[in-house]
Sequence to fold (244 residues):
Amino acid sequence: MTLSVLPDELFGDGVFETIHLRPSGPFLLGDHLARLARSAALLDVPMPDLPDLDGRKSDISESALRIICTRRSHHVTVSPISPDTLRERREGVRVISARLGSAIGGKPPWSLWEAKILSYGENFAARRWARARGADDLLWLSTEGYALESPTASLVWLAGEDLCTVPPAEAQILPGTTAAHLLSLAPSAGLRPSYRMVTIEQLRGADAIWLASALRGLSFVKELDGAPRRRSRWTPILLDLLGY
Fold:
């Protein structure tokens, strides 16, 4: 069978945003749309005229609103949040760390270099690699040993009274909308927002560690590289601050 025009989605030639949809409407809609526009500009994908999203509301307690834009089309969908995502928000996650490069060939062990994949395939492969080793998620490390992010979430941690996340420009990672909003609210909880690099050794000494994303909200890291971590009294406070 021959297709005269292959869809952009087949090659991952597009951009997307996932937004937490609440009964009150889309959470942080403006920030997500701004990041979508930046992403589209980087790929030279034209931004479409999107329907009015401010009026969208979840007819259940919460849903996932996704916007997908390619060169020829755009899609807006609403779907339930997976039970695994809600469980991770409620119960926390176990995390193991792994460097982005390895001694053999300079590729991480979950690399799919032999396969023609869509853009997000390697992210999901990394999570499968972690889950096969008894963890729920992965924390990417730079070759120098700095903690960066997980395949689908931003890293947030507490060091004394400093609520921290990784500076996206310095680390060359995608800016996290939920993490940035949380840090903007940190002073109202008596915490200082801080963007800084952190080594995995320093991170192990943090008072608390979380993974932040639009649907998960904030999941506390209950285990890092096999070492259990104590629950933090800050987890419900920060979740409440975000409105989850």
Residues 1-5 have pLDDT under 50 and may be disordered.
